[in-house]
Design brief:
The structure holds 2 protein chains of 2 kinds. By secondary structure, chain A is α/β, with parallel strands linked by helices. Chain A has 2 domains: 180 residues, Rossmann fold, CATH 3.40.50; 127 residues, Rossmann fold, CATH 3.40.50.920. Chain A is built from 11 helices and 14 strands. In chain A, the strands form 3 sheets. A 7-stranded mixed beta sheet of chain A has the order 3-2-4-5-7-6-12, with helices on both faces. In chain A, strand 6, helix 6 and strand 7 form a beta-alpha-beta unit. Chain B has a single domain, classed as Thiamin diphosphate (ThDP)-binding fold, Pyr/PP domains (Rossmann fold, 3-Layer(aba) Sandwich). Chain B is built from 11 helices and 8 strands. In chain B, strand 3, helix 6 and strand 4 form a beta-alpha-beta unit. Classes of the chains: A alpha/beta, B alpha/beta. Chains A and B meet through helix 3, helix 4, helix 6 and strand 9 of A and strand 2, helix 5 and helix 6 of B.
């Protein structure tokens, strides 16, 4: 099976879809002549031309809104945010426009648009370039939110996101663009709304998504040496949420740790914990625990950043608490 | 890089290619304006009776802009506008019944009671809303123009906004993008001299918002928006320019709203006498004088027009009052659009871990 980097898998998904449907175009800062800030769109200008791979001025609010308007008249835009930190400038267009148009027009206008780009912290990018946005997008009905961890998932889910008739927030990671993984040579898609068990286990379920899947897999390997069998459930799709997979995992292991990059307060992990206790309280052998960023804007210094981000060690510690193997009973991750 | 002197954009032609308005044509435009005003007067009455809810922004006084613009457009032209849009909706072809029923929150409204006063839509006549975040719809219009151009529809996007919206970043970004990509869009500022309660000279150092276009090299023009014939010609000139592929145009129509910002605003911030002064250039009165003076229309004929409008507006109210409420069983119907199953060629082979 071919091995692709994450960026190549994303590019393949976009290119395959653009060959299939002339209404799809890619728009964003540096996507064309620069080949993409992270080289995701490398070579696409050459294949598709400047009307379908479109450089923009630095105006996220403007070109996100332009994408929404174009989607309303039959185009299928892929809007690249160089990183999702900058998407906050366009938050109004995503939430007040894209997420609402289908409903407030009573189905007369659809908004098939993908907003994609890098989400979350990379390394030492400091306060304004390290934001995780999934919780603040997933909050709203009308959008779908996807977060990918592997090249295989990235290609199959991005194709589905492009084909979806709704706005899809598609979250990638700067740290994963070079990650290699097997991707089938033949065309495939992965439906939105389906979680994937990235590692099987019997003692505890770690629920996560995106880049943190890898942190959790590292932690699970360590835990195995300690005699704890942890399974890692990758949500892949945050909205719609695969309730069935989540509740099945709870029923199997009875202990749950949720690992969510970004802040605990009013975050996606809290939402998952609430849904789990509402639906399967009797299946739980202990409280649902969270591992998240510390509740502080991201500092620059590597020494300080390491205190804030999620590490395998912090996950291991919290899992050991969850399975009753650690005397520390505080909810270690979240503050 | 050295700075190059900007080439000033060309002026629009002094006359559009539209033929002059005929007597029948002007009678039609007059009727449209009277209808919009009458429907809104009845909406105001229903609002005070608590039959219409929430925010309700009336267009009374500005009718000539929407009606003139509609006369300048073709069916394939798409309109995007803000929240003071009842008049624009009707001018573009949304029926008074569908507008009034929407204001009443009824199932027969043009968005089935989901959108309300601020979010009127009707895809049958390319009326694309109805947006309540001031200025945020302007980039949408650029995108509509992008799509109309890419899909080779020969359509133009027309974006209505107020003088207040011309201060939002989204507005300025949209101008930049539209000019950069030479999009077929006409940005039509309706300067009614008030952003909610803030008078133009207290919100802007610049009175003519079309001058904002010069900053991006866009063709611009400010014109008197009270005379529907003049509006028709100036908007036509702009739409023709945009349709020809030469790029966008920004217009400013000088107009005036008679009512407050919304139904809850008594507009006490206006200097005394201003409203009465402005009413001397009432769009309906201007057209009435023209019809009688230059086209020989009699007072009786005008009265007959008004009577037929009254009947149509009354019918819209009756329709709204007798229409059913939306069925809560359909509450979730439009949160997400159904997406067709992936084509067989693209279906997953084996889900891989």
């Amino acid at each position: 099976m071919p091995v692709l980097q994450m960026r190549e898998a994303l590019r393949r998904a976009m290119s395959e879809e653009m060959r299939r449907d002339p209404n799809i175009f890619l728009m964003g800062e540096e996507v064309a002549y620069y080949d993409g800030a992270y080289k995701v769109s490398q070579g696409m200008l050459e294949e598709f031309g400047p009307e379908r791979v479109v450089d923009t001025p630095i105006s996220e609010n403007g070109f996100a809104g332009l994408g929404v308007g174009a989607a309303m008249v039959g185009m299928r835009p892929i809007i690249e945010f160089m990183t999702f930190n900058f998407s906050l400038v366009a938050y109004d267009q995503v939430i007040n426009s894209a997420a609402r148009i289908y409903q407030m027009s009573a189905g007369q206008y659809k908004c098939p648009i993908v907003f994609r780009g890098a989400n979350g912290a990379a390394e030492n990018l400091a306060s304004q370039h390290s934001t995780s946005v999934e919780s603040i997008y997933a909050h709203f009905p009308g959008v779908k939110v996807v977060s990918v961890a592997t090249p295989y998932d990235a290609c199959g889910l991005l194709k589905s996101a492009i084909r979806d008739d709704n706005p899809v927030i598609f979250l990638e990671s700067e740290m994963l663009y070079g990650l290699k993984g097997e991707v089938p040579a033949e065309e495939y898609t992965i439906p939105l709304g389906k979680a994937d068990l990235k590692r099987d286990g019997t003692d505890v379920t770690i629920i996560t998504w995106g880049k943190q899947v890898h942190t959790c897999l590292t932690a699970a390997a360590t835990l195995e040496k300690d005699g704890v069998s942890a399974q890692v459930l990758d949500l892949r799709s945050i909205r719609p949420l695969d309730h069935e997979a989540v509740f099945a995992a709870v029923a199997k292991t009875h202990r749950v740790v949720i690992v969510q990059e970004g802040f605990a307060f009013a975050g996606m992990a809290a939402e998952l914990a609430a849904r789990i206790q509402e639906t399967c309280f009797d299946l739980l052998d202990g409280p649902v625990r969270r591992v998240t960023n510390r509740d502080v804007p991201m500092p620059y210094s590597p020494v300080l950043e390491k205190q804030v981000i999620i590490t395998p060690e912090r996950i291991v510690e919290t899992v050991l608490q969850a399975v009753g193997r650690s005397p520390n009973t505080t909810n270690g991750g979240a503050r | 890089m050295t700075a190059s002197a900007p080439t000033p954009p060309p002026a629009l032609p002094e006359r559009s290619s539209l033929p002059a308005v005929t007597k029948e044509g002007l009678l039609h435009l007059y009727r449209e304006m009277v209808l919009i005003r009458r429907v809104e007067e009845l909406a105001a009455k229903a609002y005070t009776q608590r039959k219409i809810f929430g925010f309700c922004h009336l267009y009374i006084g500005q009718e000539s802009v929407a009606v003139g613009a509609a006369a300048a457009c073709q069916p394939q032209d798409h309109w995007v506008t803000a929240y003071r849009e009842h008049g624009q909706a009707m001018a573009k072809g949304v029926s008074p019944r569908a507008v009034m029923a929407e204001l009443y929150g009824k199932a027969t409204g043009c968005t089935q009671g989901l959108g309300g006063s601020m979010h009127l839509f009707d895809s049958k006549v390319n009326f694309m809303g109805g947006y309540g975040i001031v200025g945020a719809h302007v980039p949408l219009a650029a995108g509509v123009a992008w799509g109309l151009k890419q899909r080779k529809t020969n359509g133009v996007a027309v974006c209505f906004f107020g003088d207040g919206a011309a201060h939002q970043g989204a507005f300025f970004e949209a101008l930049c993008l539209a000019q950069l990509y030479k999009l077929p869009v006409v940005f039509l500022c309706e300067n009614n001299f008030y952003a909610m309660g803030t008078a133009i000279d207290r919100q802007s150092a610049l009175i003519d918002m079309s001058l904002r276009g010069l900053g991006v090299g866009m063709v611009r023009e400010q014109f008197d928006g009270f005379d529907v014939e003049h509006v028709r010609d100036r908007v036509a000139a702009a739409v023709e320019f945009a349709r020809s592929g030469q790029g966008p145009v920004i217009l400013e129509a000088i107009t005036y709203r008679y009512r407050g910002h919304s139904m809850s605003d008594p507009a006490k911030y206006r200097p005394s006498g201003e409203l009465e002064e402005k009413k001397k250039s009432d769009p309906l009165a201007i057209s009435e004088r023209r019809l009688m003076t230059d086209f020989g229309v009699t007072a009786d004929e005008l009265e007959a027009v008004r009577a037929s409008v009254d009947a149509e507006a009354d019918d819209a109210v009756k329709f709204a009052e007798e229409s059913p409420w939306p069925d809560p069983a359909h509450l979730y119907d439009y949160t997400y659009a159904p997406t067709p199953e992936p084509a067989a060629a693209g279906s997953a082979p084996e889900e891989k871990r």
